[in-house]
């Protein structure tokens, strides 16, 4: 049986927060809580889900600002790639750049690594290192679904004009780390609607095959 996925679109930037659950054990992971942590807490408590992991695709303010509140309420080990420690340390400054209030963030309880397998009950998530939008950005793959964070959107990509971003790394991450998968693989991004590898390979104006030929 596949992992159960619940998508919550939260906050002023329309962030997608995901709650992933093993259908057998009910063990759960929460991915990227930026805003409205109370909505995530309410879902977890209502369904009595044991939270094992708080998974971060990266440490920008809008993906981590609510993580500590969730951790305090329902538990879970906060996991992040170590290359994003510098971003995590500057979350307050990031927020002030965009007029958001200062927040405290959780301690990293587990450092993610490329190709690592994260156990969730009887299910497994594969970590894929996808830097560019952030130096320690990762995606999480299970079967024919990838939670891609902000590295890839439907017909767009994550911005690279922020500190510690790299356009060259982002292109490599998408073209070499994500486009290696089959066309039908579904991508669930940090903002906006879902897409597929095949759609982005053909139609993405920034990193699709057409863009690479220009």
Automatic annotation (TrEMBL):
MF GO annotations: hydrolase activity; metal ion binding
InterPro entries hit by this protein: MBL_Glyoxalase_II, Metallo-B-lactamas, RibonucZ/Hydroxyglut_hydro
Transferase recorded as keyword: no
Statement: the UniProt record of this protein carries the keyword Nuclease: no
Keywords of this entry: Hydrolase, Metal-binding, Zinc
Sequence ranges assigned to domain Metallo-beta-lactamase in this UniProt record: 14-191
Cofactor: Zn(2+)
Protein name stated in the entry: MBL fold metallo-hydrolase
